[in-house]
């Protein structure tokens, strides 16, 4: 094998030459053969590298140096440094040097004297030629002159012993001595534009090409330092969907030094579309040729110089995971923590960061991506469903992002303050939704992700205290039912209404009240039907003005200095009676269809007059109190303190909205990450209010429940069961945990009381 020449020309290379030129070199040869425009060049063979090790005599020492414990980051980096220096310091054998120099000169004769070249590493394993080491070794761009080419080749060889490459080989079970490296020397494309293309959808395999493009060299996209434009082309109809990103960074050749530098994209180009339709079709045509040649979908890198399209690399697409692994660090010896926030929805997931600044960019979020945004909104729900995980700058554990992620079963970290600024679009990260941490690269999953229906433990404990579930979006119903919960303790209608996209007043002003009622009815019906005959407490609208102002027709929403203390909850519906009545009509319709499992729950009650007036309107609407339970949320300390007056108005149940009760008791804004550390639902003052209400309600025969986030905490469940609460309503992911905690506390209480009575006897 060592008798192979030092140099082979790319046009003479075929796929069977992988052991000599690696996968990258062989693929370039194949493409030239298929008449794809590939920049010409030659490869310094893997056999030449082996002869270099033998003739310089460094092989033995080299392999001894890198036999270290790769899990010890320090040991690994010291060994890698020593090994690389060994390769760089060795003097290249004379004949080998002469061969490389003369090949470069020959390239100059063909392509113009002293051409600028890219020197790329292409590693290959002797025993497993199909193994991929892409992304592990280095590439050198804009190299000029024979001496620099020789030195770049030697640097490529040295990069076979970088820490990341050593780590990867050990973890993948490759013997260092059987992995070789070839260096591909290829005429440089001085790219004005470049990017990547999947010839077919990498997730579904559907015939739709996905092309990403940006200004300058492709390195900006591959390294993830720029958000590229994304174009999706339906290969059958040739229809193009273009998503134009703001491109801030470009990698170019410095005019003076000739070096490759990263610089800011000129302002007039930042938001300009990179590729014309004609260019897209040329790239697509080439992609289809390559796909036909290899008979499999391809992940292609392309570049455009003076209007001419070149293909600089192509590799088969197997899965998204493979693509990510090729582009970025596969696994880091020590995972690097990039960012912290609040763990809002449990589970761990890895994927490529997609930073979304505006709703019209949502198409960029593909299956398995990490959606990173300031704060989610209802029109982001389809993209949230596609995402592997969600990260936001703003928000607390009860923000839209947190609630919806939990219901969809997508891991989420909220309130990071700076995710959209510090994470890099396109980079591979791992999101730990439990601990609230974002790591670089792909980490081994700790546990199975929780997407899909929540498994219910085979033996579901029967508890005297009912365990219910919270629902905010109809899409979560299947998962909510799968928990085996005893009913829905909170159905938030505002998420359904926000999801309609138009403000309730839009429907009123356009004489479309029926449309509103039908839409809302559809959403609520999914839930009451799925849970029938178990009770579903439908909470009437709790719409903060700041969120509703964003909707079409919401321009009239008053601007308030503090929306949390403003026009929301029942106080709003009692002044905006038409909107209240539209909701009641929806509920009335459902009762008429035979759903007798609905309860009406009034949010943010502050005084008994509100309950009286609300009940009056409910009665005026023709809703019979014999057919329906009416209850209130306890979210304001005032309502807890006057609970007896509220009971006197005739209520069937109360439910603690501890999200608000905590913020109003402690003067801590629930959505403000700066004071998140002070936010404590188990603060003695909050618990005192809760206990006070439970005692009075139990005396009066009024059912008590909790539907705030605290109801998902097993510790809180223990406290509440001991206080005598009737039911607990949790998030979907927490139901089975809370049910176990409730069962345990109930058994302990029985045990304690039997011990007490034994002691008394
Ligand atoms: C609460 O305040 O605890 C509650 C459940 O209501 P929301 O989070 O919708 O304000
Ligand atoms: Mg509330």
**Major beta sheet summary:** 8 strands, mixed
Arithmetic mean of pLDDT: 88
Distance between the termini: 92 Å
Helical stretch tally: 28
Class derived from helix and strand content:
alpha/beta
Report the strand count. Answer: 29
Percent strand: 15-25%
Task: Round the Cα radius of gyration to an integer and report it.
Answer: 32 Å
User: Which hetero ligands occur in this complex?
Assistant: phosphoenolpyruvate, magnesium ion
Unreliable residue runs:
319-334, 446-458
User: How helix-rich are the residues, as a percent range?
Assistant: 25-40%
Shape, principal axes of CA atoms:
elongated
What structural keywords apply?
761 residues, alpha/beta, 8-stranded mixed β-sheet, 8-stranded parallel β-sheet, 28 helices, 29 strands, 20% strand, binds phosphoenolpyruvate, binds magnesium ion
Task: Tell me what the structure shows.
It is a single chain. This protein is an alpha/beta fold. Helices cover 39% and strands 20% of the residues. The chain has 28 helices and 29 strands. The protein has an eight-stranded mixed beta sheet with strand order 14-21-20-16-17-18-19-15. The chain has an eight-stranded parallel beta sheet with strand order 28-27-26-25-24-23-22-29. A hairpin with a 2-residue loop joins strand 12 (298-305) and strand 13 (308-316). Helix 18 crosses helix 21 and helix 20 (569-575) crosses helix 21 (577-592). It is elongated and about 100 Å long. The protein binds phosphoenolpyruvate (PEP) and magnesium ion (MG).
């Amino acid at each position: 094998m060592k008798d192979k020449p030092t140099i082979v020309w790319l046009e003479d290379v075929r796929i069977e030459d992988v052991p000599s030129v690696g996968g990258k070199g062989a693929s370039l040869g194949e493409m030239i053969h298929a008449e794809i425009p590939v920049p010409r060049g030659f490869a310094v063979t893997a056999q030449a590298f082996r002869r270099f090790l033998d003739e310089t005599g460094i092989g033995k020492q080299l392999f001894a140096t890198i036999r270290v414990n790769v899990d010890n980051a320090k040991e690994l980096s010291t060994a890698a440094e020593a090994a690389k220096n060994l390769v760089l310091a060795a003097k290249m054998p004379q004949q080998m040097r002469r061969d490389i120099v003369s090949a470069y000169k020959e390239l100059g004769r063909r392509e113009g004297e002293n051409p600028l070249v890219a020197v790329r590493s292409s590693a290959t394993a002797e025993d497993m030629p199909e193994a991929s080491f892409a992304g592990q070794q280095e590439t050198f761009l804009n190299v000029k002159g024979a001496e620099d080419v020789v030195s770049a080749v030697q640097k490529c060889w040295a990069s076979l012993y970088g820490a990341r490459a050593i780590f990867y080989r050990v973890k993948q079970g490759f013997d260092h001595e059987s992995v070789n490296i070839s260096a591909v020397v290829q005429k440089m494309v001085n790219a004005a534009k470049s990017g990547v293309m999947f010839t077919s959808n990498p997730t579904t395999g559907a015939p739709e090409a996905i092309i990403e493009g940006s200004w300058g060299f492709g390195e900006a996209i591959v390294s993830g330092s720029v958000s590229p434009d994304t174009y999706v082309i339906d290969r059958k109809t040739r229809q193009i969907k273009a998503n134009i990103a703001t491109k801030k960074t470009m990698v170019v050749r410095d005019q003076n030094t000739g070096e490759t530098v990263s610089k800011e994209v000129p302002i007039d180009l930042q938001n300009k579309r990179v590729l014309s339709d004609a260019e897209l079709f040329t790239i697509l045509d080439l992609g289809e040729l390559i796909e036909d040649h290899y008979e499999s979908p391809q992940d292609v890198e392309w570049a455009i110089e003076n209007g001419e399209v070149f293909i600089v690399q192509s590799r088969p697409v197997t899965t998204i995971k493979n693509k990510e692994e090729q582009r970025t660090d596969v696994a880091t010896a020590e995972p690097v923590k990039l960012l912290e926030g609040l763990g809002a929805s449990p589970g761990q997931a890895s994927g490529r960061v997609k930073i979304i600044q505006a709703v019209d960019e949502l198409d960029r979020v593909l299956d398995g991506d990490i959606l990173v945004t300031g704060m989610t909104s209802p029109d982001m729900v389809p993209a949230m469903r596609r995402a592997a995980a969600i990260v936001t700058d703003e928000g607390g554990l009860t923000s839209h992002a947190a609630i919806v992620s939990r219901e969809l079963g997508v891991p989420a970290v909220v309130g990071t303050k700076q995710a959209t600024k510090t994470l890099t679009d396109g980079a591979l990260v791992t999101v730990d939704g439990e601990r609230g941490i974002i790591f670089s690269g792909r980490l081994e999953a700790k546990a199975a992700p929780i997407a899909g229906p929540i498994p219910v433990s085979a033996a579901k404990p029967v508890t005297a205290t009912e365990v219910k579930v919270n629902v905010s979006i109809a899409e979560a119903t299947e998962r909510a039912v799968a928990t085996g919960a005893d009913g829905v303790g909170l159905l938030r209608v505002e998420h359904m209404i926000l999801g309609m996209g138009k403000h309730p007043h839009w429907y009123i002003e356009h004489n479309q009240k029926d449309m509103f009622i039908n839409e809302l009815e559809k959403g609520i019906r999914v839930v009451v039907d799925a849970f029938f005959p178990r009770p579903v407490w439908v909470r009437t609208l709790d719409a903060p003005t700041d969120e509703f102002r964003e909707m079409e027709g919401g321009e009239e929403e008053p601007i308030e200095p503090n929306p949390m203390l403003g026009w929301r909850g029942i106080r709003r519906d009692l002044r905006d009676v038409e909107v209240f009545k539209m909701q009641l009509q929806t509920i009335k319709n459902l009762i008429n269809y035979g759903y007798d499992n609905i309860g009406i729950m009034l949010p943010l009650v502050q005084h008994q007059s509100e309950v009286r007036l609300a009940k009056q309107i409910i009665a005026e609407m023709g809703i019979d109190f014999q057919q329906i339970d009416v209850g209130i949320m306890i979210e304001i300390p005032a309502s807890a303190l006057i609970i007896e007056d509220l009971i006197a108005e005739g209520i069937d149940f109360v439910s603690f909205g501890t999200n608000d009760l905590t913020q109003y008791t402690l003067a801590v804004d629930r959505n403000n990450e700066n004071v998140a550390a002070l936010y404590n639902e188990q603060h003695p003052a909050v618990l005192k209010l809760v206990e006070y209400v439970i005692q009075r309600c139990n005396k009066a025969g009024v059912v008590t429940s909790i539907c705030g986030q605290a109801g998902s905490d097993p510790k809180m469940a223990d406290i509440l069961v001991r206080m005598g609460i009737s039911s607990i309503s949790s998030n979907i992911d927490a139901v089975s945990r809370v049910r176990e905690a409730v069962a345990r506390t109930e058994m302990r209480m029985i045990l304690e009381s039997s011990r007490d009575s034994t002691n008394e006897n």
